[in-house]
Design brief:
alpha+beta; Alpha-Beta Plaits; 4-stranded antiparallel sheet; 2 helices
């Protein structure tokens, strides 16, 4: 599994792109690719947990969603995660 960490600013482009992004995440959650996702409590960023086989698949996920390229959204970390519970 992989954790994608995002940092946000208040750029209006981010807020305009968010509904389509959330719809896509919901579809990928139903498909078992996105395990969980959501903003940090202070809305300074977000965390997405992906169940994909490798970093190349994470990069494909990021490239397929224009949300990750709008002003106000920065991918500030991608980490492999090996949970032992859940």
């Amino acid at each position: 599994m992989w954790i994608v960490e995002l940092a946000f600013t208040a750029a209006p482009e981010r807020l305009a792109a968010r509904p389509a992004h959330r719809e896509r995440l919901t579809e990928l959650h139903a498909a078992g690719i996105v395990r969980t996702a959501g903003p940090l409590a202070d809305d300074s960023g977000a965390v997405i947990v992906l169940d994909v086989p490798g970093r190349a698949a994470v990069d494909e996920f990021l490239a397929a969603d224009p949300y990750f390229r709008v002003p106000g959204v920065e991918v500030c970390g991608v980490r492999e995660w090996r949970p032992f519970l859940g």
